[in-house]
């Protein structure tokens, strides 16, 4: 997962991602997760991204296939597969807490979207997911067949390593787009997002409506990913809390298991 130039600091990121995914799910389920905690997690995650370049799972996911293509099969490759499997299982249990707050790439886009400006809701989630799925196939094929690291063209690696390059400029453009449009990289490009979306489809814990809902539609109008309708499966829900914050009825939206 981590390549020949393995940096032990990266393990901090993986441990952070797994531990905080569980802590975040617990806080949500116990009703203690708040906007303040969300901002705190986003800030810590962004700092970790710049300080250790981890947990940069999309980048490390791509490295798995580059290593496979180069025949570098070793301990770190298996460690990476185990880490990714654990995070996917956590998405299947609790939803996408990793994408919500613990991925530096997602966190900087989330920060960009908080900049007050007119927002453009792009709600064609089926089309976006299909494009992202195709990119996942292209990324794996490019890595295995040609040793090409397609994700590198999006520049987040140079951005978080604070290296001035064409790639950094590309990622800055992505962040500028993320000011009016919610998480363009996550929703159109990220191959790990494609995997976690499938993982989160059967999530046991997710945001659900209760009988207290008065069907005012406010949550649906504010949701940037078109996941707030009662029948939506929440696989593209980034647990951003916008639906909960606009809901006029206490207890109409709760995070929990499906009631029998
Ligand atoms: S979709 Fe990808 S880039 Fe976005 S938060 Fe999830 S893992 Fe990170
Ligand atoms: S508004 Fe609600 S349903 Fe939509 S992404 Fe945010 S938390 Fe999920």
Share of helix among residues? 55-70%
Order of helices and strands: HHHHHHHHHHHEHHE
Low-confidence stretches: none
Bound molecules: iron/sulfur cluster
- Proportion of beta-strand residues: under 5%
* Molecular shape: globular
Characterize the largest beta sheet: strand count, sense, and whether it forms a barrel.
2 strands, antiparallel
- Biggest sheet, strands in spatial order? 1-2
Backbone structural class: mainly alpha
Question: What is the radius of gyration?
Answer: 18 Å
What are the SSEs and their pairings?
Blueprint: H1 9-29, H2 35-52, H3 57-69, H4 75-94, H5 97-102, H6 104-113, H7 125-146, H8 156-160, H9 166-177, H10 184-189, H11 191-200, E1 206-209, H12 218-222, H13 242-246, E2 253-256
Antiparallel strand pairs: 1-2
Helix pairs in contact: 1-4, 2-6, 3-4, 3-7, 4-11, 7-11
Bound molecules: iron/sulfur cluster (2 copies).
One iron/sulfur cluster (SF4) binds next to helix 3, helix 6, helix 10 and helix 11.
Structure in words:
With 260 residues, the chain is mainly alpha-helical. Helix content is 59%, strand content 3%. The protein has one domain (9-256). The protein has helices spanning 9-29, 35-52, 57-69, 75-94, 97-102, 104-113, 125-146, 156-160, 166-177, 184-189, 191-200, 218-222, 242-246, and strands at 206-209, 253-256. The protein has a two-stranded antiparallel ribbon with strand order 1-2. The protein is globular and about 55 Å long. The model has no long low-confidence stretch (mean pLDDT 92). The chain binds iron/sulfur cluster (SF4) (2 copies). One iron/sulfur cluster binds at residues 207, 222-223, 225, 227-228, 237-243.
């Amino acid at each position: 997962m981590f390549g020949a130039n393995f940096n032990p600091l990266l393990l901090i990121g993986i441990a952070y991602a797994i531990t905080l995914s569980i802590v975040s799910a617990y806080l949500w389920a116990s009703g203690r997760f708040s906007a303040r905690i969300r901002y705190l997690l986003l800030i810590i995650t962004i700092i970790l991204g710049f300080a250790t370049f981890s947990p940069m799972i999309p980048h490390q996911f791509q490295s798995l296939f580059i290593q496979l293509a180069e025949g570098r099969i070793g301990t770190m490759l298996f460690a990476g597969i185990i880490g990714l499997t654990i995070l996917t299982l956590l998405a299947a249990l609790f939803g996408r807490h990793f994408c919500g707050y613990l991925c530096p790439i997602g966190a900087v886009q989330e920060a960009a979207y908080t900049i007050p400006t007119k927002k453009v809701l792009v709600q064609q989630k089926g089309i976006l997911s299909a494009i992202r799925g195709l990119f996942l196939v292209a990324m794996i094929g490019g890595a295995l067949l040609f040793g090409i690291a397609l994700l590198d063209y999006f520049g987040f690696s140079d951005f978080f390593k604070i290296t001035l390059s064409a790639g950094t400029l590309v990622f800055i453009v992505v962040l500028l787009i993320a000011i009016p449009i919610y998480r363009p990289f996550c929703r159109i490009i990220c191959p790990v997002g494609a995997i976690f979306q499938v993982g989160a489809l059967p999530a046991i814990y997710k945001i659900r409506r209760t009988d207290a809902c008065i069907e005012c539609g406010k949550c649906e109008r504010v949701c940037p990913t078109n996941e707030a309708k009662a029948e939506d499966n929440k696989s593209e829900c980034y647990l951003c809390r916008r639906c909960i914050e606009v809901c006029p009825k206490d207890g109409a939206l709760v995070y929990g298991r499906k009631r029998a």
